[in-house]
Every structure is written in structure tokens, then in C-alpha cells.
Amino acid sequence: MIRARAEKSWVFAVYVPVILLCAACATHLRHAKAAYAEAQEFSRRYQTEQAVAAYKRSLIESGIEVGNNPSAQAFMLKGMAEVNLGLWRDAELSFIKASGLGFEAGEAWASDVSLLGLAISFEELGLGEPALRAYENLLGKSAFKPVRLAAAQKYFDLTLARTLGLGDKEKSRALADLARVIDKLETGDFACGFYHYFHSQVESHRGDYRRSYEEAVTARELGLPSEKILRDNDNQIVFCYDKLAGSLPASERDIFSAAHAAWTKRWGWKDARTPNWKME
Amino acid sequence: MSKKDIESALARGVEILNEFLPLNSTLYFPILYSACIWAVRRVFDYRERIFSWQVWLDPDEVRTKPDEFILHFFTTHEALSRAYADEIAGRDVKALRAAFPALYPVCGLEDAFLKALFKKELDAGDYRKIADEFATRAAKARDDIQPAAENPHFWAALENLGAELAALGIHLLKDEAVEKAVVKAIKKHAGKSAVGG
Q: Fewest CB atoms less than 10 Å from the CB: which of A24, A111, B105, B136?
């Protein structure tokens, strides 16, 4: 009996902690995944603060997980959370480790994240030309969508800033080139609202307010990556609405205003010019 | 809900901030106001939320706008059109473009933290001061919050305060009333120059 009791306590002493440890490890990975999914859901609903909070929770949980039980999945999750928080260097290291543990795309993702981080550094140091080349390269070849989107934002902003200093003819040509780049991106992924947002911005620079309006409405309908961008896109819609309402002939203006009213009603705006998030 | 209880809870909030950020009274209003708003929504992951504004500050929209968009922004915003009447009348896009990166996040995108950070200037209609000081003050806010942010007791104290405010029924007050109560608590603590000064 004494022996049986001793065996029982041995079982408790060895197996129970092991089981609890495994359960805890599984819990961290599960929590990291749950927080990441929650963050994506918040992002989809433009709740940026909540999304950032959830990405941070996912990063903390996956960080504990890779310490306790390093796996390709845990490192990949950690890297994804880091990408969404703009921690490019950390993300690169996580993807390299994920790759070493069998995650096939990890190496390519790490290389893309590294190039993006480098391009951002170039831009911050005032080296616009190499930064632009790196963004362009990522736009064309990266299979990792978050990097492609971040590169697109940087590429369009930097290129548009350059057009401001050009003469009319050169500017018109540069903007036409940009429109072609965005057309190509849209062809590859027409359902990406962020690309339509860029398209709207480019058309606004070209003075084509009708096209800019249509692209901004499409962007809003397809979804945008953050509340800040959604708000900027809403401001673009109001700007184009004012421009078009002021320039269209009366008959066309009425049709346009009726269509605009239908959209704004669907989006829950206070009136034709006031999005629901506006305080004033 | 007792107004007095809320006022004394807010006064304790100011004391907490004074303890953790003794030389940075400019941050009292944005932090305390944000804590109240989150208490209303009954969410208490304050650490992540306060840090999220740093990410929120990072540029991710297309910042380069055409002249017409910038003119439209300044002319359609009532207070801005008054403050920049001369530049608008003279179509001085160069001057408006210089002020745009500071004023658009505050007045165009209505960033809650930045609006609270520049509350004093917004109330006074001093938009030129926002344009002049935006970069320095936003960067300073980012740096100043760091020492307190590294102290777990700071977050625990804020979380307790939020829970107390929620229990006292702060959700029954409108945002404007919460704003007034926070301003009152801060002014009471440190004199009229404390808010945003």
C-alpha cells in the first residue's frame, strides 16, 4: 500500500506538472492566435485602438510561446503581429526563425520585411531614390500582402510628393505613369480597397474628380486597413462631391446628388458632407 | 451617480498623474480624458490603448495632397478659414501646405489624442500655434510618457481609476461633460496654467 501510494505521488510529481506545462504552452499559442484573429476583426471594423491592443496581446502571447516551445507556427504568428505593429526588424528575425523550423515562405517574407525596413530607413535619411526603387521592387514581387500594401503606401506618397515640384507636362506624364501602376495592381487584386484608395488619390492629383470619387466610394465599400485611412478617404469623397456638385450641369448634378445621398445613407452619414465620425 | 464622487475620483486621477508624470502636466488632460472615455466603454487594457496612439500617429494615409484638396480643407473648416483668411484670399498654397501636416490630423482626421493634446489652442482658435508647435509637442508627448509607461504601477493605478469611474456611472455623462469635469479637476490641482500649458 505504501508502495502504491509512493507510485501515485511519483505520478503526480512528474506527469501533472508536465501536463500543466503542456496545457499552458497550448494556451499561449491559442491566446496568440485568438488575439491575432480579434485584431484582424477590429481592423476590418476600423477600430484601430482595439486592433493595436489585440496585436500587442498576440505579440506578448506568441513571445512567451516561442520562449517555452519554439515552433514555426509560433514564430510566424509573432512575425505577423510585429508586421502589423510596424516592428520590421523584429518581424524579419521571427520569419527567419520560422523558416529555420520549417515554415517555407518564412525566408521570402523575412527578405521582403528586411527590404521594406531598409527602404523606410533610406527615406528617413532623405535618400528618396533608393527608397523608391526598393518600394517599387516590393510592389512588383512581394508575395507577402502586408508588405506589398505598406510598400504601396510609401511608393505612392513619395512619388506624388515628387510630382509637386514638376512642370505641367512632366507632372501629367508622371501621374499617368502612376495611374498605370495602380491599374496593374488593381488587376492583380481588384477586391483590395486600399488600391482603390490610392487610385482615388492619384486621380485627385490629375484633377479627374469623377474618377477619384468613384474610386473612393469603391474603396469604402471594399474596406480599408485603418480608421485613419477610412477618414481620409471620407474626406476625399466630400472633396470630390463638392467639386463635382459645383461643376456639373443642373440635370447631371441632380442625378449625382441623388446617388451620393443613397451612398451616404447606407454609410450612416449625418448629411451629404458629414461622415458619422465627424464631431462638428 | 454622484457628481461629487466623480469629481473626487478625477481629483485622485490628477494626483496619480502628478505622482508619475510630475513635470509633464500637458499630458494630464489627454491621458485622463482617454481613461474616462475608455471607462465609459468599460474596457481596461489601458497600457495597449495608450500606446496605440503612438502607432496611430505614424503616417499611413497618403499625405501628399493636391493644392485643390488643401484649399478645400482650409476653406470648408469654419474656424480654419477665419484663421487663414489672408492665405486663402491670396491662394498662398505654399503657406497652407506648410501648415497642413499639423492641422489635418487634428482638424481633418479628428485624432482624439491629438485633439486633447492641443485642446487649449483649439478652444482659443489658435491654429497657427498648433501648426508651429505640432512636431515638437507630439514628439515630446511621445518621449514624456515613456518613464511612466515603463512603470507597471502607473497602469494599475489608471486601471483602478477607470474601474472606479465606471462604477460611479460616468457612462451617464456626455463626452462634453466628462471633458469639463476633467479640465476642472486639473485646473483645481495646478492652477489655470496646467491644462496644455
A: B136
The pLDDT confidence band at residue A19, using thresholds 50, 70 and 90, is low
Do A157 and B59 lie within an 8 Å CB cutoff? yes
* Among A residues 24-63, those touching chain B with beta carbons less than 8 Å apart: 48-50, 52-54, 56-57
Q: Which three cell numbers stand for residue B114?
A: 491629438
Quick count: other Cβ atoms within 10 Å of Cβ A92? 23
Question: How far is B43 from chain A, CA to nearest CA, in Å?
Answer: 10
* Min Cα separation B53/chain A (Å): 7
Would the pTM count as exceeding 0.80? no
Domains of chain B: total: 1
Convert A117-150 to b/e letters by CB count within 10 Å (16 or more is b). bbbbebbeeeeeeebbebbbebbeebebebbbbb
User: Is this complex's ipTM strictly greater than 0.90?
Assistant: no
| pLDDT given for residue B195 in this prediction | 45
Across the interface, do B62 and A226 touch by the CB < 8 Å criterion? Answer: no
The structural domains of chain A, with segments of one domain joined by +, span 1-98
Q: Structural domain of residue B168, as residue ranges?
A: 3-61+109-190
Q: Tell me the CA distances in angstroms from A3 to A6, A7, A8, A9, A10, one per residue in order.
A: 5, 6, 9, 10, 10
Chain B hits for A56, Cβ within 8 Å: 48, 51
Residue of B52, B72, B109 with shortest CB distance to A232: B109
pLDDT (tens digit per residue) in A176-219: 999 999 999 998 888 888 999 999 999 999 999 999 999 999 99
Whether residue B143 is contained in a domain is answered as: yes
What are the residues whose beta carbons fall under 8 Å from the beta carbon of A65, sequence distance 6 or more? Answer: A25, A28, A29, A32, A71, A74, A77, A78
B118 within domain boundaries:
yes
The answer as to whether B39 is a domain residue is: yes
Interchain CB distance below 8 Å, B110 and A278: yes
- CA-to-CA distance for A84 and A86, rounded, in angstroms? 5
Which residues of chain B are under the pLDDT cut of 70? Answer: 1, 22-25, 37-59, 146-147, 149-152, 171, 174-175, 190-197
Query: Residue B43 corresponds to which cell in the numbers above?
Result: 474596457
Out of A160, A229, A277, the one facing B110 most closely (by C-beta) is A277
Q: Is pLDDT above 80 for A94?
A: yes
